[in-house]
Amino acid sequence: MGRGRTIGRAAEEAGVNVETIRYYHRQGLLPEPAGSSNGFREYPQSSVEQVRFIKRAQRLGFTLSEIKELLSLGGGHCEEVQALAEEKLSEMDARIRDLSRMRETLAGLLQGCREGEGNPECPIIRAVAGDEEQQKDDY
């Protein structure tokens, strides 16, 4: 088959399933592979490496559209990549703050449950079902 590999082999080497590679093609994250003389598409090593890059970037919190932008920048645009990474870090910090507030709220509700043992109405259910103004204050 030459230097390429089938989609199944490329997926296996990259640690994804075949549908993931097809999806990345549809999203414009991977170039279409060249066809071979036997009619099968051949995926070069660079495609496997690009899929691995995409998966690592996802684990860092980047969306596929952000990854597409990173890929379009390539390695020679460090300042632009840095700006994207700083923006992503700010988004993560905001999410962490939101999650911390939600955790505090839920922990408080759980404490209310523990203190109100035997209460016929669950404080968590009552709080979640409460009015919208109260929910805005809680979150």
TrEMBL record:
Q: Which GO terms describe its molecular function?
A: DNA binding; DNA-binding transcription factor activity; mercury ion binding
- CDD domains xrefs: HTH_MerR1
Ordered alphabetically, the record's keywords are:
DNA-binding, Mercuric resistance, Mercury, Transcription, Transcription regulation
Q: Which Gene3D superfamilies match?
A: 1.10.1660.10
Could you tell me which residue ranges the HTH merR-type domain spans? 6-73
Q: Which InterPro entries match?
A: DNA-bd_dom_put_sf, MerR, MerR-type_HTH_dom, MerR_fam, Tscrpt_reg_MerR_DNA-bd
Per the record, the GO terms for biological process are: response to mercury ion
Q: Does the keyword Transcription regulation apply?
A: yes
Domain of life, per the record? Bacteria
Q: Membrane-spanning residues where?
A: none
- Matching PANTHER family: HEAVY METAL-DEPENDENT TRANSCRIPTIONAL REGULATOR HI_0293-RELATED (PTHR30204:SF94), REDOX-CYCLING DRUG-SENSING TRANSCRIPTIONAL ACTIVATOR SOXR (PTHR30204)
Any idea what job this protein has? Mediates the mercuric-dependent induction of mercury resistance operon. In the absence of mercury MerR represses transcription by binding tightly to the mer operator region; when mercury is present the dimeric complex binds a single ion and becomes a potent transcriptional activator, while remaining bound to the mer site.
The name this protein goes by in its record: Mercuric resistance operon regulatory protein
State the organism named in the record: Thiohalorhabdus denitrificans
| Native organism taxonomy | Bacteria, Pseudomonadati, Pseudomonadota, Gammaproteobacteria, Thiohalorhabdales
